[in-house]
Amino acid sequence: MQVGKGFFMDGHLLNNKDTMDKPIQFKVGAVAVYGKAILAPMDGYSDLPFRVLARELGSAMSYSEFINAKDIIYARRPGYEKRLEFLEEERPVVYQIYDEDPERMIKAAIKLQERGADILDVNMGCPAKSVSARGAGSGLLKSPEKIAAIFKGLTAALNIPITGKIRLGWDDNNLNYLEIARIIEDNGGKMLAVHGRTRLQGYRGEANWEAIAEIKRQVSIPVIGNGNVRLAGDIQKMMDYSGCDGVMIGRAARLNPWMFSGYERWEAPQELVYQSAKRHLDLCISHYSADYGLILFRKFIKSYTSIYDIDAETRLKLVTTQNVGEFYDLLEGLFSRKLTHQKGIVVGDR
Length: 350
Ligand SMILES: Cc1cc2nc3c(=O)[nH]c(=O)nc-3n(C[C@H](O)[C@H](O)[C@H](O)COP(=O)(O)O)c2cc1C
Known about the structure:
This protein is α/β, with parallel strands linked by helices. It folds into 2 domains: about 15-260, TIM Barrel (Alpha-Beta Barrel), CATH 3.20.20.70; about 270-335, Orthogonal Bundle (Non-ribosomal Peptide Synthetase Peptidyl Carrier Protein, Chain A). The protein is built from 15 helices and 13 strands. It has an 8-stranded parallel sheet with strand order 6-13-12-11-10-9-8-7. Strands 1-2-3 form a 3-stranded antiparallel sheet. Strand 8 (about 95-100), helix 4 (about 100-115) and strand 9 form a beta-alpha-beta unit. The longest helix is centred in the C-terminal third of the chain and has 18 residues, at about 270-285. The two termini are about 30 Å apart. Mean pLDDT is about 95; it is low at about 1-5. Bound molecules: flavin mononucleotide.
């Protein structure tokens, strides 16, 4: 059954079903990628259910939430297993790892490779103090020689492609992105995702697309641009501006996963929104459990409902209903009538 630009069948959204008929957008080593828009890795959000949904809607590859190398080596957090699971239909699957110690990172990466991911990505962007203060995530940007050792070591030890995700530098006085990009390429990196902000900027302010363009001009591996993509229309804008090979979308994709099918948030057909919500909830329940799945699904309730004019009682039920069967009924009842958009909803609002 077709809904606008969206397809669904047997509870699966199938916007990406003809992936292999599309032209190759770029290659990561030998791994072909067939689209230009990619869901960004987001701790706490890009779990299996949301990744599968995004992939079915058209996201071109699946990045895991970042994975602490220590948790792989010492297996100290049993719940971590869930973070490592993926579905075959998500491929190409990227495991993203973080650590400050090259040796430990390589050991952990070997274990991760055994689990069948297609690509291993090194996080060099996380600004959180708990990560960057120990020299991991964006903390690595301060140690280019460590980045060289990590890429050299990983490339030698693994047979899947190694990629990196960076920021532009620690702060405006330390914008070393061209140096880091060169080091990554020279030491075997096969793709680079660039969040066009510094560590100091966090998630605020404008992302610097010119810097992404500079990197693209300098390296010959694929470059994925990231930052300041709020609307579906921004994807092509960023590609045109920077010449990047693909675009990675984080926060805006949480509110509008339909941008992977080319829709602005307000354009997504109501039936597609409903089918997406159901599919997402199904995935949460099968990946976690009924109760926990519903709790985690609720993180996304705004994506499915905030654009619509919904009465206060229903809104309250959407956040309080605990029984999963009742919640499905609530969704069905809500979406079975023609919903109108709220007045004053800000375009690209987060
Ligand atoms: C809640 C949250 C969690 C994130 N977790 C990760 C992560 O695990 N790995 C990573 O490389 N980036 C992570 N990021 C950064 C995003 O991948 C992305 O680079 C950043 O949000 C900028 O893109 P955006 O402006 O489209 O959101 C995270 C961002 C957010 C908001």
